[in-house]
């Protein structure tokens, strides 16, 4: 009997700590993505200064900046979806209450899962095709599967995030929980 009580208490603590861990991880990832953007800006400044003032340019820096931005955008899209900070038309949900608001979010989540799952499928096909060809980038000479994998990883993350949000919103709809935004 006591072990069952301890298990229940342990699950309760775990259930309470998971959102906290996810929030901390999200905050850390925001900092990492921000630092990556600052590094890209620094590379751009050094490259532009070298090109226009000293007549030299570092090979591959333009590619490196573009590939880094694509990875940052995809990681940021996952974070934005998880926090519902993404660009969306939220006029109706902002005025909806209770179960209707949950229902609107469920429709949104289903659309996100379907669209992102399809994009994941297409990205996987493209990455495998380009991997078989063995193409490399012109400046850095890296396999093109690396920059194109950003879309595969990003859409996979978006699909998983949307599925988690769908499960959460279905649970909230079934229990008729009051709606709380993440991080609120």
Q: N-to-C terminal Cα separation, in Å?
A: 37 Å
Query: What share of residues are in beta strands?
Result: under 5%
What integer value in Å does the Rg equal?
Answer: 22 Å
- Tally of individual helices: 5
The count of DSSP E runs of length 2 or more, i.e. the number of strands, is: 0
Strand-helix topology:
Elements: H1 2-53, H2 61-83, H3 91-95, H4 98-133, H5 145-175
Helix pairs in contact: 1-2, 2-5, 4-5
Gist?
This protein is mostly helical and about 180 residues long. Helix content is about 80%, strand content about 0%.
What can you tell me about this protein's structure?
The protein has 184 residues and is an all-alpha fold. It has one domain. Helix content is 80%, strand content 0%. The chain is built from five helices and no strands. It is elongated.
What would the keywords be for this entry?
80% helix; 184 residues
């Amino acid at each position: 009997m006591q072990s069952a009580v301890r298990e229940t208490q342990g699950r309760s603590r775990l259930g309470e700590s998971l959102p906290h861990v996810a929030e901390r991880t999200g905050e850390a990832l925001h900092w990492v993505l921000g630092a990556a953007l600052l590094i890209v800006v620094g590379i751009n400044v050094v490259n532009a200064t070298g090109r226009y003032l000293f007549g030299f340019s570092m090979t591959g820096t333009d590619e490196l900046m573009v590939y880094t931005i694509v990875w940052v955008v995809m990681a940021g899209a996952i974070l934005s979806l998880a926090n519902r900070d993404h660009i969306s038309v939220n006029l109706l949900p902002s005025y909806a209450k209770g179960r209707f608001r949950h229902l609107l979010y469920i429709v949104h989540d289903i659309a996100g899962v379907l669209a992102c799952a399809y994009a994941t499928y297409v990205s996987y096909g493209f990455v495998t095709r380009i991997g078989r060809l063995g193409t490399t980038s012109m400046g850095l000479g890296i396999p093109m599967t690396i920059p194109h994998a950003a879309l595969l990883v990003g859409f996979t993350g978006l699909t998983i995030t949307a599925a988690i949000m769908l499960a959460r919103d279905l649970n909230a709809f079934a229990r008729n929980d009051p709606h709380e935004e993440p991080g609120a």
